[in-house]
Amino acid sequence: MTVAIVLLSLALGAYLLAVIERWAVHGHLSLTGPAWAALALLGRESVLARKSDRLFFEIGPVLLLVAGLLAVAVIPLAPGLIITDLATGALFLNAALAYVLVALIMAGWGPNGAYAMIAGWRFLGQFIAYAMLIVMPITAVAMRAESLSTVQIVTSQAQLWNVIYQPIGFVLFVVAAMGLAWLPPLDLPDATGELAGGVEAEYTGARLAVLRLGRMTIILALAGATVTFYLGGWLGPWLPPWAWSAIKIMFVAAAMLGVGRYMPRIREARYLALSWKLGISLALANIFIVGVIALGSGPIDFRLGT
Fold first, then answer.
1. 224, 251 in Cβ contact below 8 A?
2. S-S: 76 plus which of 49, 82, 94, 221, CB 3.0-4.6 Å?
């Protein structure tokens, strides 16, 4: 029953996110627009490149969707409303999202097209940039919660949300999340105007629909992770816990979709330099500050899952 509720919530969230994205891109709000677009894709012929690597071409979009679903599995929407409460849930989420890189490399290599291949290798450059900025803020969050369980991380914020306790980690995690979801200004894998669609360039029909659904799932998973790690998860007054989770996740996802469109696109080399020279330094400072505060407030039990 829990699995069905979470998947239904994910499907509704993905649809609402598609509505918001069309609004951000085209400037007009249409509640039925994504449905008609999906039907058009499903009814369109799926064209296969002449000299494609068929295995990579077919698996890429599916693997992207699977990675998003695995990440969603450890995000709590309310007390007891989580597919699986792992003692190492935060690390599992990071491991699941690592397959986004594999999926995009497959999607870029598989069609044997220049634009798609360049897009895939561009994302590899972004991965080198954002990888540490995902792991290191999670480390600081786990230090405060004294656990890697996503449920324990939420309950540890009952008195003070981590966005206030760890503002540096919050900013770094959100920037890294936008790179992972290849959202503007870090949208180098599709780079409209440069690569004619990038990783999506050679996909049509149902395959393109799966690829876009996978991306929406990834964005929602990252928004859910941001809410879980920094915005108190389901915690909030008056409304039911699930309602707070839904409101926060959709707000974060909409912000990730909208804010970056007003910034110039960042080259992967520039993003890599900033991440390693500035981002990692700030992430280490964040871990140090959280460690000092934790040691000053009392002894820490480092047993995972407690």
1. no
2. 82
